[in-house]
Amino acid sequence: MSTDHLSSDSTPSHEQQLHALRKRARGRELIDDYARQRIVALPRSDSAIAYFEMGDPNGTPLLCLHGLSVSGFFFAQYHAYFVRRGIRAIAPCLLGGVYLADGAKTIDQLSAELVELLDVLDIHKFDTVGFSWGTLPQLALIARVPQRIRRAGLLGAMLPQKFIGKAEIAQLKSDVRQSLKMVAHAPRLHRHLMWLLCKLPVSVLMEQFRDEQLSAAEAAALEDGSVFSQQLAHCMQECQRTGSRFFTDGWRMFLDEPGYALDDLAALPPGADLRLYVAERDNVHLPVFSRMIASACPDADVARLKLDDALTPIDGVNGPHAVFRPVYSRRGSSIWVAPNAGRMACMLYLTQALDNLIPERAPERRAFSWA
């Protein structure tokens, strides 16, 4: 099923989008994958959105935002974890999977749709976690409704191209640099290449995640037959079911004019907790991106964030067993690093970051009874 025939200036009404999304999720062979999926209309945005809901329906609301090669379905594998943690996880399909391509949609519009989705679900205050590409709409959302954010975890944070310079782009993995250049200067060619890319076997696509910067644990997780590798491959297959346009749209959105400034993050209220999780050797989600975000947060120590040794762990704050070690902490914002890890850390260590971000809920006290 392909959406590539849709032109960038063809935007169906939300009733048409609802019909199309439901039709795509109806196949009998997809029942297991889409058992936890819901599809709702967003009249205010004149749109519709598919999302997965996992965990405890009465739990702490957590908005989960996925990266570029997977959809909201990625988070369905953590249902048991969310139940155990008392978390109500909401994972929208921003791209991929049951997604209706819209070549005109921007990151800012996505953040508006996320706000409307939360309103439809009657969720006001919430936590949010995002990884890789998903941190783009996550940052726009935080800037849009800072007063509604309790805790925000950004794993492998990325930034719109407007916020980064040539020095940062030069540090990116070569294929990422080439994609950004192509989508800016040859978008039609980029679209055709993304179409061809999605025709390749998933086993070939998995190779894009391998490089010399990965830790031994990350490399082992990508080996054929590992649980992580099998789950990731299945999530990538699900993402591609509606065509390749999600890749085109996703890369283009890096070039969007952001509807906010990084300084808007200074509006985060007292008590909000923004945590940035980075991998020391990540050549896609550069640690400098997280430093730039932290420098815009309230009470930032900008001078310290510019130091070359800003990834030195703070002693005594976290145990030696933890994946992420704190390297920077100020009121309401902090940076946590996975030493010697590479680009896969933001996906591989999702639950470890959530364990750090969201404290365990205290057990409920039962009223004393003589019965």
Describe this protein's structure.
- It is a single chain.
- With 371 residues, the chain is of the alpha/beta class.
- The protein has a single domain, classed as Rossmann fold, CATH 3.40.50.
- Helix content is 35%, strand content 16%.
- It contains 15 helices and 9 strands.
- The protein has a 9-stranded mixed sheet, with helices on both faces.
- α4 (135-144) links the parallel β5 (126-131) and β6.
- α3 crosses α4, α6 (174-185) packs across α7 and α7 packs across α11.
- The relative contact order is 0.14.
* CATH structural fold name: Rossmann fold
The figure for the number of domains is 1
Uncertain segments: 1-11, 367-371
Oligomer: single chain
Number of helices: 15
Task: Please summarize what this structure is.
This protein has helices spanning 14-24, 79-85, 107-120, 135-144, 166-171, 174-185, 187-197, 202-205, 216-221, 227-239, 245-253, 287-296, 302-305, 345-348, 350-357; strands spanning 37-42, 47-55, 60-65, 87-92, 126-131, 149-155, 273-279, 325-330, 333-338.
